[in-house]
Amino acid sequence: MIRLGLGLSLASAAVRAVGPLGTRGGLWPFPVGFALLALGLLLGLAGASASLAAGVKTGQWGLAAVGVVVGLAVVAVPSRVLLAARGAPPIHEITTDDEDPPLFVAVLPLRASAANPPEYGGADVAAAQRRAFPDIAPLVLPVDSAQAFDRALRAVEDLAWDVVASDRPSGRIEAVATTFWFGFKDDVVVRLRPLDDGTRIDIRSKSRVGLGDLGANARRVRAFLRRVQDVD
To answer: How far apart are CA 71 and CA 142, in angstroms?
Structure first.
């Protein structure tokens, strides 16, 4: 029983990793990767449960504890993501300016086969974003446009996004962010506009596929805004 629980937990860890990473590597489509992810979670629960029962029954907690820890760890990672996404609306783009959102230009050819169109979703998306993420707003830096552009570009690079365009004269930066597990491609555009007292920075992040994003675009926008303020 102890070996069975440990085996299930170890198998769950392998399946949990292989499913999404196989999708990212092009070995199989997303539905297969998602199915393997779900299977990994079920195996993790089964492994942790079996290991716990075996430990209680036999009092031999060495391998049993390992099975419990590994199984619960496999379940904990996606569970944490789901918990963080509580309240996230079924939208797949976020912007700091929903009245005049930054436009995609350079990434448009990359989105040619994307399920989600490059145009902004409109008033319904804006209203959903305001309800769920009221803190997301434009950032004004008390520096000139040249300094602000350098800081914004540095932030994009620090976040390991792939820069597609860096247009200093127009104050526009476009990049592609790739999610870790499944390798989904999300597009980002940063817009800078000079003000009398500094430079206004707006950002828009949009997924190429999916109805909802579990809050991923909002987290990405927040990470960028924080990073820009931290860059020297």
So the answer is: 50
